[in-house]
UniProtKB/TrEMBL annotation:
The keyword Transferase applies. This is Acetyltransferase (GNAT) domain-containing protein. Signal peptide: none annotated. It comes from Pedobacter terrae. Residues 1-135 form the N-acetyltransferase domain. The lineage of its organism: Bacteria, Pseudomonadati, Bacteroidota, Sphingobacteriia, Sphingobacteriales. One of its GO terms (molecular function) is acyltransferase activity, transferring groups other than amino-acyl groups. Keywords: Transferase.
Length: 135
């Protein structure tokens, strides 16, 4: 059973750390503006299994730190969480949703109609490209 709901910022940290940066110190996954964000958790059989965080500047929204625990990946959960935040952004009348995508995840975002921009960078051992979608 899958449930998605808004969660307190600190609940995202463990999932982010285990999924995205297990080799870095725990505190490295905390974002300075976490307490300004809107955070969502995906519960699989009542266990917090995936998270994503939304930040906005007016009607332009950014999602950050989309993470599904490794043991639960490739089962359609990331897809459900993305669909949920796209609905949320549409309800908020957002005009654009963007993200800093890890290069190795960009095919995942193509599935939702995101396109690559020419902005790329390297951080914490990963190559990123800015991807966006007009809403
Ligand atoms: C990227 C991530 C959120 C995807 O979540 P997931 O639950 O594994 O994805 P899903 O099972 O919902 O995948 C949906 C579809 O996207 C594809 N997909 C998932 N991850 C992919 C990837 N990294 N590259 C290419 N395709 C991918 C799946 O094969 C599936 O395709 P299909 O419908 O044709 O079978 C998850 O793998 C993750 O947390 N990865 C580590 C952290 C990360 O990279 N986060 C994104 C940072 S930008």
């Amino acid at each position: 059973m899958v449930q998605i709901e808004q969660i307190f910022p600190s609940l995202t940290w463990r999932i982010r750390h285990e999924t995205m940066y297990p080799e870095l110190p725990f505190d490295s996954v905390k974002l300075p503006d976490d307490f300004d964000g809107i955070h969502f958790g995906l519960y699989l059989d009542h266990k917090l299994t995936g998270v994503v965080s939304l930040f906005h500047d007016g009607d332009v929204y950014q999602f950050r730190k989309l993470a599904i625990l490794p043991s639960a990946q490739k089962a359609g959960l990331g897809l459900q969480l993305m669909a949920y935040i796209l609905d949320f952004c549409n309800i908020q009348k957002a005009t654009k949703l963007w993200c800093n995508a890890r290069i190795n995840a960009k095919e995942f975002y193509f599935k939702f109609g995101f396109h690559e921009t020419d902005k790329t960078f390297f951080k914490d051992g990963y190559d990123f490209v800015v991807m966006e979608k007009e809403l």
